[in-house]
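Example 3.2
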Amino acid sequence: MIRIRHAVLAALALAASPGAFALNQAAVDVVVGTNFEFFTSGSSAVDSDLVNYTKNVLCQAGTYDVYQDIDANGVKGGNYKVYTCTAGSAAPVPAALQGQNILIHKREKEGSLYGSLPQARNTYVEFMNIRSDRFSGACVADASANTFDCTVASPVTNLAAHDLPRHDPAHGGLATETVNDDECDYNTVAPANPVAIPPVGAANSYLDTFCRRATMGFSDTEAEMFVGANINWKPNLSDQVDTDDWTALTARQLSALTRKKIFGQVFGIAVSADVFTALQTAQGITAGAPDQTGAASNWPTLGSDQIRQLLSGNVNTWTQVVGNIGLAGNLNNLAICRRDQGSGTQATTNQYFFNYPCDTQNGTPARDTGGVGVANAAVGPGLLYVLEGGASPYVKWCLNQAAAGQLHDNQGNLVKYGAIGILGASGDPSSTDTPLADTWQWVKIDGNAPTIANAISGVYDEWVESQSAYNATNANANELALAAYLQGALGTPADMTAAGDSGIAAMTYNGGGGWDNGVSNSANFGNHDFKVPTNPTMGGQHGNVGAAFPASGTSPLTCRKIVNQVDNSAQTPNRSR
């Protein structure tokens, strides 16, 4: 049985009036399977905004907790999260949710692809189970407040012919499923080769993860970006997921979605600690702790073409790209800490540095090397290590492990690498979701730092307009109310301020203000203190933000530095097609 509370806290919660404390296990179990359990999936880059808004606006004060998975490497929240609380008792919380205990599941694994494709197709995806009589592991208190780390167990013995996860009728899933399916039953009809799911209380009835349709999704970029190499999974690894299921959405499938851009998200290039100081020295910057006040005065720079070469897999060492900057021995070997294909972070990187999928002549970034460094004499000496992480915490893990000498070479030894990675630039290195303290640092691209201020002024253009999407046909009344509420609230200046957001920016079309508000950023964008210049021309870099998204969803992508994003208002599903 799941263990998620210290006895004292549980006793306090049971004795208190409703809403006074975070939900205890009994309260969580009651919500499971009701219309107050919600399911979302997609981009991990939007989590800071979703967490802040849920905790500070949607939930009553003092009632919020988050449960996250912790894997064998100590990475936290890389696959699943569940937010629990008592919803606020007044507007702007939807009336049907006011004062109710709620659970909001968030699937992080494989990123932004899961922010639109499952919703458009009404497809089942995987979530973490925290119901006490279904979850076999333990959730223990994390050092971070209101956070619990949950160990997800191996497949149950009497379903050995299956892959996890299972459908769980307790959460509204199917009562039977097909043997040897992929991650979850792809089809929405009854399986042709059914196998009964163990009922609650039966032997081996634990289902640490389960399958459910995700009503709402979040993506760093538009659904049309997920084509070709942006949705081809890991062909050289054993943990293939939905290999045969995901293909680009059709116009008819796209028309089922209600989509809206929510905020501006900056992405950046990070490097491991040794690379950072070596670049500083080589560029005449006094090596030392980076300036993390926003000025980025002592951040070194890499050119766009250098970054493309480093990410391409066509080199094994830093020297081949940046020359001799003092990275000797193993530190000169290259580790690429990237996201997996299906990630919006990765799709944005592919477009920005490789112009993919608009142009296939430049190739795509190097693929996962299976947890070891590999030699390729055809491109030169040294070793190349590539990790494809399913969510942002895995990129941070890779960067930190490279600096600590905890990645494998091709002989089974743990060694250092000089690492480069891609992340949403929503804050300074201060991770609590990896076992090692953050030592990685940001670098500039072509002399410009990945900051909100530089994006607003137009000198830094690796940024995207993150989107939300939901399918009204895949929602009960409460799910639809929450989806519409979140889509309307996330990204508006007033609600971003109320949520305490930082590292993202409201867009002009989301309630006024936004990028071209000529006052202190703190009024609209949370904790950053940048000044926002008057009337910048942000729209030109991302296409015409005032233009309606094509109803068919099939027009060619506009290929600029960053691909043209979805329309600036909620797009009503077109059911006439």
